[in-house]
Amino acid sequence: LVSSLYERTDDVVAKAVIGSPGASVARDLRCVICLYGTQAQWRLLTESPSRHSWERGRAHARCGVTWCSSRIELGDVTPHNIKQLKRLNQVIFPVSYNDKFYKDVLEVGELAKLAYFNDIAVGAVCCRVDHSQNQKRLYIMTLGCLAPYRRLGIGTKMLNHVLNICEKDGTFDNIYLHVQISNESAIDFYRKFGFEIIETKKNYYKRIEPADAHVLQKNLKISSPGQNADVLKSEN
């Protein structure tokens, strides 16, 4: 793989010659550039085909993109940037979301945020409030960021934002989400924050494999005996 990225003041031009191995790296780069155009700030990069070092600031990140800083911020989802959220979700997730999803996202306020890395929108989190079995629950509908920006603390920033909302509110019983059973990195990520697998739903996803999903949950209040069983019963 040989990748060349050119920086201009008013435009970004990318040229990738795809070989093997490394095609997925070039594909991720093209996704970022396609999504953000002039928002992306790239420097000329030449790299050995056998060595794909990803650097941020002093030394980490991915894909050979060198960052001069590492500012992570969260911003509101508005009618003006909702299309950006749609594009991000199309790249990040293997499932698609309908117009009602995005209409509802515009109504949840602080429960939906775009994540910015050095002023570039690279991820998002979208949640909703659920009421079931006399419980107030927060459901994480989506939380993710573009592959080249993972392991930089962006997911942690988004999840902490959601957890802080629950803590300040003080009335949520738990927070939960669905994760594809093959997504081990996501499962490990949520476990670090105290989430546990409480159920596995068969054939939860349509048109993707594997179709099964784990339900991960973090309890925010001490549950009474049998309460979790009632919640699981209501979801089936």
TrEMBL record:
The name of this protein is N-alpha-acetyltransferase 50
Localization recorded for this chain is: Cytoplasm
- CDD domains from the entry? NAT_SF
What PANTHER family does its record include?
N-ALPHA-ACETYLTRANSFERASE, N-ALPHA-ACETYLTRANSFERASE 50
Known catalytic reactions = N-terminal L-methionyl-L-phenylalanyl-[protein] + acetyl-CoA = N-terminal N(alpha)-acetyl-L-methionyl-L-phenylalanyl-[protein] + CoA + H(+); N-terminal L-methionyl-L-leucyl-[protein] + acetyl-CoA = N-terminal N(alpha)-acetyl-L-methionyl-L-leucyl-[protein] + CoA + H(+); N-terminal L-methionyl-L-seryl-[protein] + acetyl-CoA = N-terminal N(alpha)-acetyl-L-methionyl-L-seryl-[protein] + CoA + H(+); N-terminal L-methionyl-L-threonyl-[protein] + acetyl-CoA = N-terminal N(alpha)-acetyl-L-methionyl-L-threonyl-[protein] + CoA + H(+)
Keyword Transferase in record: yes
Main localization is cytoplasm
Q: Which residues form the N-acetyltransferase domain?
A: 72-221
In the Enzyme Commission scheme, what number(s) does this protein have? 2.3.1.258
Look up the domain of life of the source. Eukaryota
What the protein does? N-alpha-acetyltransferase that acetylates the N-terminus of proteins that retain their initiating methionine. Has a broad substrate specificity: able to acetylate the initiator methionine of most peptides, except for those with a proline in second position. Also displays N-epsilon-acetyltransferase activity by mediating acetylation of the side chain of specific lysines on proteins. The relevance of N-epsilon-acetyltransferase activity is however unclear. Required for sister chromatid cohesion during mitosis by promoting binding of CDCA5/sororin to cohesin.
Name the Gene Ontology molecular function terms of this record.
protein N-terminal-methionine acetyltransferase activity
Q: Which SUPFAM superfamilies match?
A: Acyl-CoA N-acyltransferases (Nat) (SSF55729)
Query: What Pfam families does the database record attribute to this sequence?
Result: Acetyltransf_1 (PF00583)
The processes (GO biological process) annotated in the record are: somitogenesis
